[in-house]
# Entry
Amino acid sequence: MRTKAMIGALAASATLIGLFGCGEENATAPETGAALELSKSERNALAAEVRQLTAGRGITALGRPPRVRPTLVRLGRALAFDKILSGNRDISCMTCHLAALATGDFRSLSIGQGATGLGATRVHPDGVFIPRNAPPLFNLFALKPLFWDGRIFQDGAGTFHTPAGAAITPAMHRVFELGTISILPLFPVTNREEMRAASGNELALISDDHPEQIWEALMKRLGKIREYRRMFELAYPGQRFEQMTFAHGSNAIGGFFVDQLAFNNSPWDQFLAGNDRAMTTVQLQGAKNFMSARCSICHNGPALTDNLFHNVALAQFGPGKGDGAGGRDDFGRERVTGIAAERYAFRTPALRNVELTAPYGHDGAFFDLRAFVDHYSESHLKLEKFLALQDPNVNLLEPLLRNTLLPTLNEVLATRDPLLTGVFFTPQVVDEVTEFMKALTDPAARNLQRIVPNRVPSGLPVDGARGGSGDEDD
Ligand code: HEC
Ligand code: HEC
# Structure
């Protein structure tokens, strides 16, 4: 999979830039006063303006999630941290969604089962990467489609759409209490690179076409542990463990995320609640830019996502999803809808706590938040420089990944979202918007050690636990 990069082909694509013009004539950067020391009345006026723009974009306060019964949360926490859900019992959900790393892994692309170490120091003996970046698990109750390509979602009528189709029976469907996030945990356990492995255990022997047999085998494993049987029966009063399926486990993991990883107390949230002094003047100015530039056309609604898919011109690298001539490309949303115009489109991420969740984008192309914001300014030129290894950010990618950059400049720009055409920002605007991004951090998200259990019912080591096998930096 780790073939040589085809950077040479890039030279040929350099001519494309002419098509896009320099963008400065129809710049979208709003006017910004050079002086940020505003008088009291100027500051009040700025706050009022931000409020007005915000309302115009449908950006309202993010509510609290639905209440989840504590017995369900307890079961979900145990399952999320328990390596028993992986084929060879060597990786849990939270190995890639580390509490110490804001529920990510601080890697561009994750590394799954069969590997050692955590976070930045995790290594796989065969250099195997997961094709995409591990997104944070914050406020998942507010996200309608899940995964970068939205391949799992619940429609307005309440019907779930997933790649597993009829393998998820109507009886299982009735178990999901919290929308899309209740059904998602059914999937990582079936993935061989992430959790199940190609060999060495009874789950690995099951054909990829029969996910229901994988879920059954997991329940068999869990049923051998008395503590789990009790936890399932407490979480679902009146039901016997024997009558339950892994849908019950999946729903519980969703309940744990929804209950423990809801964050809506950032300075921005306090501002929305009426406190004009919650954000700094620079952050207010950044918020104004965010609302009046095009950011909030896509990052809108209470969670700052339109729950839709766009191509914002990021470089592609890593093993890919089997797309394109060499199979190393990732067509994103097109993989789900089959619509060619949606090639390279990915779900607009929710932005709360974004300061804590580097690297950014579906393949973690940027480690620096300011650089990601800056990427929107003349993104066609930025992408070209990135692919030509002339962008300092590309040097932050680990060599194994940098060597797999796909020279697909023309292809990516062909479906780039038209909203990005003509976008140009001054460095000052980029600074201000970046400061606004930091106003989205809920202080309670800075330390998540409280969600990590000291032990799990299987007795297997808990990654990230104090005194456990965790070896990541805290
Ligand atoms: C090997 C690392 C790894 C493991 C193990 C893992 N994940 Fe993930 N997770 C990822 C990656 C990578 C993605 C993005 C995949 C995509 O979008 O195609 C992801 C996406 C998600 C999402 C979607 C979030 C969003 O914003 O759409 C959720 C929820 C999630 N994982 C929960 C889990 C649960 C629950 C488990 C255990 C059953 C788990 N993960 C195991 C790496 C991992
Ligand atoms: C055309 C819609 C659109 C516009 C306009 C837009 N974004 Fe995005 N944003 C996205 C999508 C889609 C992604 C994910 C792209 C990917 O991974 O390929 C994203 C990713 C991000 C990320 C990375 C988040 C993460 O968790 O990885 C940040 C930060 C961000 N946008 C901020 C902004 C800012 C600031 C602006 C305005 C300058 C802006 N966006 C304008 C759609 C948009």
The first helix runs from residue 10 to 13. Residues 1-34, 468-474 have pLDDT under 50 and may be disordered. Strands lie at 153-154, 160-161, 309-310, 346-347.
